[in-house]
Structure formats: C-alpha cells, structure tokens
Amino acid sequence: LKKTSALRKLLLNIIAMNENPLILSIETGGPVCGVALSAGEEIIAEYCRHGDNAHDELLAEYIRRILNDTGNTIDRLDCVAVSSGPGSFTGLRIGAAVAKGICYDNAPALIPVPTLYALADSASGTARAMKHDGITATVHSHKKLCYDQHSALEM
Questions:
Q1: What are the angstrom distances between the C-alpha of 46 and each of 70, 81, 82, 86, 136?
Q2: pTM of this prediction?
Q3: Which of 28, 44, 79, 147 has the most CB atoms within 10 Å of its CB?
Q4: CA 61/CA 47 separation, integer angstroms
Q5: 3 contact partners, CB below 8 Å, separation of at least 6
Q6: How far is C-alpha 98 from the chain's CA centre?
C-alpha cells in the first residue's frame, strides 16, 4: 500500500508534534454520512447514518455534536481527514467543502484520504495474516459500474 504510506508519513509527522493528535474524520463518499473524532488511533466518538442524499443536512450537525459531546472545539483539532474518492461526486464535494472550511489557513491540517486505499489499508492486517500479497478494494459507482484498485502489500 504505497500511497497509504505517504498518508502514514503525514500522520506520523503530525503525531511527532503531538503524541495523540486530535483527528476529525469525515466520510461522505457513499451512502454513509459519517464523522469520527479520535485521539491518535483511539476513536473517542463517532456519528454516522446510512441513507442517500442526507450529507448536506447531517454533516455540519454531526461535527457540531461530536465536538460538543466530547468537550472539544475546532481550534483543538490537529487535523481533519476527509474521504477524497472515488465515490459520490456530490457527497465528496460536500465533505471536501466542509473540511476546507474547517482547515482554512492550514490550521488544522487537511488530509485527503483516497477511499480505495483506506479500504485496502483497513483490511491489510487480515490479508497479511492470511498470507495474501495484495488486496483489491472495490466500491460501487453508479449504473452497474464499480471502481477498483489493487494494492500490493508491503510484507
């Protein structure tokens, strides 16, 4: 997963500045509208809803709620990770616009996360345990089309 290695390096740089960086993660590339807040690798809170065409109504409210419920504010965030596709064009634009608004003036850092690489990375531990040398991640597009990406595993 060479491209995720670059994302990992960016995250490692952020972690070097703060042992447990506060990360707001946004997923709007498909039918799920999701927001998670984590400190390092530990998820503190998560809100998500599965359903079409609700991202514009839910995303800002989920962010407000997750920050309020955890006693945090935008100025305490170290970075915002947002799905960058492939996926729903409108959903991705909504997520990117909100993330860019939060990260105005580069504080906090903005991290675009390619959807297929994130899927492959999440399954890489299992694939290694099963002695596989690669992963193919696939997401539904539209009209019976799919996006897929094969990633070789770094052993």
A1: 11, 14, 14, 22, 27
A2: 0.86
A3: 28
A4: 10
A5: 114, 117, 151
A6: 13
76 phi/psi in degrees, rounded to 5: -90, -10
**Tokens encoding 22:** 């506060």
Provide the residue-wise pLDDT of the chain in tens; the chain has 155 residues.
Answer: 455 566 667 666 776 777 789 999 999 998 999 999 999 889 999 999 998 789 999 999 999 999 999 999 999 999 999 999 998 899 999 999 999 999 998 789 999 998 898 888 888 889 989 999 999 999 888 788 888 999 888 76
State which H helix or E strand residue 124 sits in.
helix 115-129
SS3 label, residue 36: strand
Cβ contacts of 14 within 8 Å, gap of 6 or more: 21, 78, 79, 109
Which burial class, exposed, middle or buried, applies to 71 when counting CB atoms under 10 A from its CB (0-12, 13-18, 19+)? Answer: exposed
Phi-psi region of 71 (alpha: psi -120 to 50; beta: other; left: phi over 0): left
